[in-house]
Amino acid sequence: EVQLVESGGGLVQPGGSLRLSCAASRFTFSSYWMTWVRQAPGKGLEWVANIKQDGSDKYYVDSVKGRFTISRDNAKNALYLQMNSLRVEDTAVYYCAREGSSSSSAPLDYWGQGTLVTVSS
Amino acid sequence: SYVLTQPPSVSVAPGQTARITCGGNNIGSKSVHWYQQKPGQAPVLVVYADSDRPSGIPERFSGSNSGNTATLTISRVEAGDEADYYCQVWDSNSDHPGYVFGTGTKVTVL
Question: What would the pLDDT profile of B28-78 be if each residue is shown by its tens digit?
């Protein structure tokens, strides 16, 4: 079955940086759009960013534009989220997820277990 | 930006039917997906494209979408259905396209 494993979370001070990774396996990674979704403690789900199969198209939620960068390495079956200028309000569990079809309105059919990012002084 | 509104909570007795609404402007023109999330776990897709079920999801889960409201229906509710549920769409109409999640609904099985 499809497997997505996030890593790279941890404690970081406000203004700091962190790079999240998502290792994908058991499917043809290069054939799918991929997405990052986050969930602040006790709160709902928030979409963060997504990236096209070849990395040529990327979209971001307004609150992270200019601070976060999504990227992928299809040779390594890996998805990344570079997070700079982190704020307290970026504290959340970050999930990577696969978009289940080539449609722009595809469902997120597989999710990783998430990695916790805590921004605090 | 596009907003999806869900009731914060729904309570239902075992064996009864739970209906969770997701309100959005002309949501009937969009493809709606639904996720179940249990405490400490990642979300799981339970309904996609308004009314389709992924493999392994019981037939008790169904969906509909029309006008300004999409609905997830859970028939013959079981204790294991207690979870948070989120609707989701892709908003392509704004200057900033992206996925939008609903506010979430906590389903409590009495």
Answer: 999 999 999 999 999 999 999 999 999 999 999 999 999 999 999 999 999
Instruction: Specify the 3-state DSSP secondary structure of B86.
Output: strand
What does residue A18 show for φ and ψ, rounded to 5 degrees?
-155, 145
Residue B1's pLDDT band, with cuts at 50, 70 and 90, is: confident
Nearest to A98 by CA among A12, A17, A18, A31: A31
* Total Cβ atoms within 10 A of residue B103: 17
For residue B49, what are the contacts with CB-CB under 8 A and spacing of at least 6? A107, B31, B32, B33
A27-51 pLDDT tens trace = 999 999 999 999 999 999 999 999 9
What gap in Å lies between CA A42 and CA A9, rounded to an integer?
Answer: 18
Tell if the CB–CB gap between B31 and A46 is shorter than 8 Å.
Answer: no
Complete DSSP assignment for B31-63 = --EEEEE-TTS--EEEEBTTTB--TTS-TTEEE
| 8 A C-beta contact, residue A23 and residue A7 | yes
Distance CA B16, CA B23 (A): 23
Question: How much of chain B, in percent, has pLDDT values that exceed 90?
Answer: 94
Q: Give contacts of B35 with chain A, Cβ < 8 Å.
A: 45, 108
Looking only at the bridges linking them, the beta strands covering B83-91 and B98-101 are: antiparallel
Q: Give the side-chain half-sphere CA count within 13 A for A111.
A: 22
- The pair phi, psi for residue B97, each rounded to 5°, is -65, 150
Contact B42 A112 (CB under 8 A): yes
